[in-house]
C-alpha cells in the first residue's frame, strides 16, 4: 500500500523552498502527496520561530495534529523546533529535527516505519556546512532557489543566527544547473536565503550569479527575495543598471527609521547611508519598487523615535512596508534591555504604520495606471487571470490567459 503524506509550512521563502525539497524527496521514494490531512499516513510540519506569534502558530498546529490525527506519523522540523528543543522533545513527536537533514526526510521516515523508534536529532547550527538541496520543479509559478543559509549579523532582536547558523552558500555551478532545470517550467526565478546578499561561492558573488543566470534563455525574470542595504555595492548597482532580467523591485529591510533605535538594534548603517543608497538605485531605475521591513516597538523606542520613523518612511516613499511588532526572543540582546514597549503602544504604532504603507502602496500603483506592464500569470479561471508585474504590482485581468506565461497589458 502506498503511504500518503502532507507538508504544512510556516514562515519564509527559505522554508517554502525546503518544503518543496522534502516533497520532491518523498515522491521519489514512492510516497504519495495528499491534500486532505484526514487521508494522510504522514504529516510533516516545517516550523518558524521569527516571532512569538510564529512559535504559537506552530505549537497550536502540532497539538491539533496530535489530537486529531494521532494515527499519522508526525514529523516536525525547522526553526521553532531548533529554538525550543526542550519544549518539542516533551511532545513525543515521531521524528523531530532542527534545520539540518531536511533533505534526508524520506530516509528518516522509512527508517521509522521499519524500526518504530522515535528519532530526535539536533546539531550545533553555528558549525554547519551548506546542506545541498536541489529541485527539479516548484509548486508556484515563480520558482525559488535557496542559494544561501545562515546569518552572522546578530541584530539585537533576532533569533535567526542562533537557529539557522553561520553564513554558508550553495556552489555556484549547482545553482546554475538547478536554475536550468527549473527554467523548463518557470520564467521567473527567485533567489532566496537568510542573508541572500552575502552569497559567495569560490570568489563569485551575487552579481556574478545573476549575470550567469541571465544567460539562461527561458528565464525572463530574476527576483531577489531580500537584500541588505549594506550589500548594495557598486558592482551590484552596475549589474542592476545593465541586466534587464533583474526584476524592477528590491526588498531592502530598514527595521527602524530612527538612528538611535538602529544602534540599539545593532544594524550596520544609519539613515543617511540608507537614503543615499536608495537615491543611487533610483538614479539607475527611477520607477523601481522598493519595499521594506520595519519592526515597531523595539526596546527604547519612544513616541519621538516612532514619529521619526514615520517621517523617514514618507521621505523614502517605499512601495510597501511590512510591519512587525517587536517580539521578545529569548537569548537575544534585546531580551535583556530595559524600557520594553507595551503591547498596547506597539499595536497603535503598527496600525499607524500600516495605514501609511497602504497610502504609499496606492500612490505607487497609481503611477502605472494607463501604462503598459508585463504580467506573469499566477492564477486563472474561465473569466479572469491574476499575476504580478516585474515591480510586483498585483494585476487582475478580465480574460482567460495561460498560467505561467507573461503578457503585456495596459494597467
Write a structural description.
Helix 2 links the parallel strand 3 and strand 4. With 411 residues, the protein is an alpha/beta fold. The chain has 13 helices and 20 strands. The model has no long low-confidence stretch (mean pLDDT 96). Strands 2-1-3-4-5-6 form a six-stranded parallel sheet, with helices on both faces. It has a four-stranded antiparallel sheet with strand order 19-18-17-20, with no helix packed on it. The chain is globular and about 60 Å long. Among the domains are: 118 residues, Methylthiotransferase, N-terminal domain (Rossmann fold), CATH 3.40.50; 121 residues, Transcription Regulator spoIIAA, CATH 3.30.750.210; 39 residues. Helix 12 runs parallel beside helix 13. It starts with a strand and ends with a strand.
Distance between termini?
A: 51 Å
Q: What structural class results from the helix and strand content?
A: alpha/beta
Strand order of the largest sheet: 2-1-3-4-5-6
CATH topology title of the domain at 127-247: Transcription Regulator spoIIAA
Helix fraction bin: 25-40%
Report the β-strand fraction as a percent range.
15-25%
Top-tier CATH class of the domain at 127-247: Alpha Beta
- Outline: globular
Radius of gyration, Cα only, in angstroms? 22 Å
Poorly predicted sequence stretches spanning 5 or more consecutive residues? none
Biggest sheet layout: 6 strands, parallel
Q: What's the total helix number?
A: 13
Mean pLDDT: 96
Tell how many strands the DSSP assignment holds: 20
Amino acid at each position: 500500500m502506498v503511504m500518503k503524506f502532507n507538508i504544512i509550512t510556516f514562515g519564509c521563502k527559505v522554508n517554502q523552498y525546503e518544503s518543496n525539497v522534502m516533497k520532491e524527496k518523498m515522491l521519489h521514494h514512492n510516497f504519495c502527496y495528499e491534500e486532505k490531512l484526514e487521508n494522510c499516513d504522514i504529516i510533516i510540519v516545517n516550523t518558524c520561530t521569527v516571532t512569538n506569534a510564529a512559535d504559537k502558530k506552530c505549537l497550536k498546529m502540532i497539538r491539533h495534529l496530535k489530537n486529531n490525527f494521532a494515527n499519522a506519523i508526525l514529523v516536525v522540523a525547522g526553526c521553532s523546533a531548533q529554538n525550543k528543543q526542550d519544549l518539542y522533545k516533551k511532545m513525543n513527536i515521531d521524528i523531530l529535527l532542527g534545520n539540518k537533514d531536511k533533505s534526508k526526510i524520506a530516509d528518516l521516515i522509512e527508517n521509522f516505519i521499519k524500526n518504530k523508534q522515535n528519532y530526535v536529532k539536533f546539531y550545533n547550527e553555528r558549525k554547519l556546512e551548506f546542506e545541498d538541496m536541489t529541485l527539479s520543479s516548484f509548486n508556484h509559478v515563480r520558482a525559488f532557489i535557496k542559494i544561501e543559509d545562515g546569518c552572522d549579523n546578530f541584530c539585537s532582536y533576532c533569533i535567526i543566527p542562533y537557529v539557522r547558523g553561520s553564513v554558508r552558500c550553495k556552489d555556484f555551478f549547482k545553482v546554475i544547473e538547478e536554475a536550468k532545470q527549473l527554467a523548463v517550467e518557470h520564467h521567473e526565478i527567485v533567489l532566496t536565503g537568510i542573508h541572500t546578499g552575502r552569497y559567495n561561492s569560490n570568489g563569485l558573488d551575487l552579481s556574478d550569479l545573476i549575470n550567469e543566470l541571465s544567460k539562461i534563455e527561458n528565464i525572463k525574470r530574476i527576483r531577489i527575495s531580500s537584500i541588505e542595504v549594506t550589500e548594495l555595492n557598486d558592482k551590484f548597482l552596475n549589474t542592476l543598471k545593465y541586466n534587464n532580467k533583474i526584476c524592477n523591485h528590491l526588498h531592502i529591510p530598514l527595521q527602524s527609521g530612527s538612528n538611535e533605535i538602529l544602534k540599539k538594534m545593532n544594524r550596520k548603517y544609519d539613515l543617511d547611508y540608507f537614503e543615499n543608497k536608495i537615491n543611487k538605485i533610483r538614479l539607475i531605475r527611477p520607477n523601481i519598487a522598493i519595499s521594506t521591513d520595519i519592526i515597531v516597538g523595539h526596546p527604547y523606542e519612544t513616541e519621538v523615535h516612532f514619529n521619526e520613523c514615520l517621517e523617514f518612511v514618507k521621505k523614502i516613499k517605499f512601495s510597501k512596508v511590512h510591519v512587525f511588532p517587536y517580539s521578545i526572543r529569548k537569548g537575544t540582546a534585546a531580551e535583556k534591555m530595559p524600557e520594553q514597549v507595551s503591547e498596547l503602544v506597539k499595536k497603535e504604532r503598527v496600525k499607524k504604520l500600516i495605514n501609511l504603507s497602504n497610502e504609499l502602496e496606492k500612490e505607487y500603483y497609481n503611477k502605472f495606471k494607463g501604462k503598459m506592464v508585463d504580467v506573469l500569470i499566477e492564477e486563472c479561471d474561465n473569466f479572469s487571470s491574476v499575476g504580478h508585474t516585474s515591480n510586483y504590482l498585483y494585476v487582475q485581468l478580465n480574460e482567460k490567459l495561460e498560467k505561467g506565461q507573461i503578457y503585456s497589458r495596459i494597467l
